[in-house]
Amino acid sequence: MSDKHKCFISYHEADRDEVETLIEDSEDAFIDKIVGAFDYEPVASEDEEYIKRVIREDYLTDSTVTIVMVGKCTWARKFVDWEIASTLRNDEKNKRSGLMGITLPSVASDDSRRCPARLEANRGKPGDDSKYARWYVYPSSVASLIDCIEDAYQARDDRAGVVDNSLALMTANKSCS
Fold it and tell me: Are 77 and 21 contacting, i.e. CB atoms less than 8 angstroms apart?
């Protein structure tokens, strides 16, 4: 097994319990960087630019993989979209991270589940190198989770040329029922 990767966890607040369960069940397969779960404090501000800056500087800058935890309404959250967009940036201050999605158990068999648009624009199936990211079912073992994370990490070099970060940023949350 390779070294543990620092993984930023992007999720919708409504799914926090399932996200915490995945992290607890992963038995330290990765170093989690997560806002607002466990004992981590949410960013206390109403200023969206400040929130983005804090998340970018304190959580995303030194992470190597972003895991988007896909629940029922994850696709509709503007901060999830922004976190994915920031993950895909590659400039002097922000190095690109690997990107992957994991379907949460609460929506695993729900035909109405939706992938966030920016993740969808980059999503390929394992073995398809024409796309940057992957979207997985909830891992059945720690070993399979580690393999998924390693694939996302390797994509930073192997599939960097196929990143699509062209969508306009979401400016408001969408309605989700």
Answer: no
Summarize pLDDT for 114-169 with one digit per residue, the tens.
899 999 999 988 778 899 999 998 888 999 999 999 999 999 999 999 999 999 99
Between CA 6 and CA 37, with CA 164 as vertex, the angle to 5 degrees is: 35
- Of residues 161 and 1, more confidence is placed in 161
Cα–Cα distance, 108 to 88 (Å, whole number): 26
**Contact predicate 7/66, CB 8 Å:** yes
89 close to 96: Cβ distance less than 8 angstroms: yes
Token digits of residue 121 = 């624009």
Strand partners, 70: 103
CA diameter of the chain? 42
Cα–Cα dist 114/69, whole Å? 11
All structural domains of the chain, each given as residue ranges with its CATH number in brackets, are: 6-162 (3.40.50.10140)
Beta bridge mates, 101: 68, 135
pLDDT of residue 40: 54
**Which of these, 5, 1, 13, 70, lies nearest to 42 by C-alpha position?**
13
Q: What pLDDT is stored for residue 1 in this prediction? A: 45
Task: Determine the Cα–Cα distance for residues 30 and 146; give it in Å rounded to an integer.
Answer: 8
| % of the chain at pLDDT higher than 70 | 91
Q: Read off the tokens for 18.
A: 């399932």
